Please model this.
Amino acid sequence: MRILIIDDEKRIRSSLINVLKIHYPKAIVVAEAENIQIAFEAIQKHKPEVVLLDIKMPNGSGFDLLKQIYPITFKIVFITAFNEFALQAIKFSALDYLLKPVIPKELIEALDRAERQLNTEEMIEKFNVFINNIENVNRETKKIVLNSHHKIHVINLNEIVRCEADRNYTMFYLTNKRSVLVSRSLKEYDEMLSPMGFYRPHHSHLINLSFVDSLEKRDGGILILKDGSEVPVSSKRQCDIIAALNKI
Model:
């Protein structure tokens, strides 16, 4: 696996190289770069398979670099200090990332995922979603990448009616009676989607508040959605769901 490390801090680049030498000997660090210009030239010259990419650098962001070299021909693992907006866009596009300071075990797991990752066309699709979400702050234009068993699905947030937990999986119910089963927990999607107008009225359910038709008081509380589905409301969340609906 040919790896390019892009980070403006020499200390971090050296640390990543040492971790790879010790824990991931099948990786070859073909080059390292401290800014966008050097990184651009290194990508053209070495054609890496994986790029470990810092988001924030002195002369521009990692996003600026990726726009310059589009279409993407390698797999990306972002390396970043905490940035809520950037992390949200990364998570929505199903791209991989590591938070600084990088933990060796997490780096190895990220590279293992990169090795197993789907083809370049799907990486380009994920990157398109990422750029869309970075450049568009409106909820109506945001998209999310869902990885099912056989393919990736690019879904507009306003197409998601509700999500339902199925053990460690999550079933997405979409408009036009479509559905997608994803091998990630509902808790992860709750954290991602709740700031986007979604609400979790029950431990097994997450709903798009835009699709709520009514709230019935039978059986402790039942949400009727516009597609005809019914979602239970846990007793401790009845007041919260009423407050959330009043804000729509």
Q: What stands out?
A: The chain has a mean pLDDT of 90. The longest helix spans residues 120-135. The longest strand covers residues 160-166. The CA atoms of residues 220 and 235 lie 6 Å apart.
